[in-house]
Specification:
Largest sheet: 8 strands, parallel, barrel
Number of helices: 10
Structural class: alpha/beta
Bound molecules: SN-glycerol-1-phosphate
Distance between the termini: 33 Å
Order of helices and strands: HEHEHEEHEHHEHEHEHH
Strand content: 15-25%
CATH architecture: Alpha-Beta Barrel
Number of strands: 8
Helix content: 40-55%
CATH topology: TIM Barrel
Amino acid sequence: MKQHIYQQLAERKKSKRKSFAVLIDPDKINNTQIDKMVALSIDAKVDYFFVGGSLVVINKTDDIIQQIKSSCDIPVVLFPGAPSQVSRYADALLFLSLISGRNPELLIGQHVISAPMIKQSGLEVIPTGYMVIDGGAPTSVSYIANTSPIPADKNDIAMCTAIAGEMLGLKLIYMDAGSGAKNPVNENMITRVAQNIDAPLIVGGGILTPEKALANCNAGADVIVVGNAIEKDASLIKEIGNAVHS
Ligand code: 1GP
């Protein structure tokens, strides 16, 4: 099995290099916007494109990834809300287990269904402990996943969940307040989790400014994911990229 992207993330963590991932929701972008986003991302030295969404209505994931791939070398990592969002054109797949929730379908059910198709795709599969943190208002992810998020002030619950995920063999931990979250994950919780795991830590959901991206990095996040804010103001790609890479 390929391990290129995971190894890169692990090495970056070791050398304390932070990464910036731009999230592309296939439903919210057209061809012209993709070209613009790719050009800005090359300029801002974006490290990864994450592609996916909790709910994708029009499935054009294959086309979007092919379009990205035709114009840059930035690795594309699938962040799928459902097995239908798997594309063999990507470089890797976050094989998400929703460990903050208690919905067996998202802990193992969907995985069993999608396993043969993913194996056949030849994608690098990165087992990822996905933790949804309360972002102050219901988000698509908590509604679709039919699970309660971890309360924003329960740092110990987040820490124990991440440790358990790592003990179960998950290679990455992703703390997500959900796309468009009112409140992003707070820095105290990020630090509590980061100090207690060895796995690279991804943080996203509701990050709107370079200052918050930097604060999350200083708190212990290894990868910062931004989607919504960039959809509204693409110039943020450069500003957030500079903050993360500083
Ligand atoms: C959501 O972590 C991602 O799953 C990114 O969230 O769209 O709010 O940046 P935003």
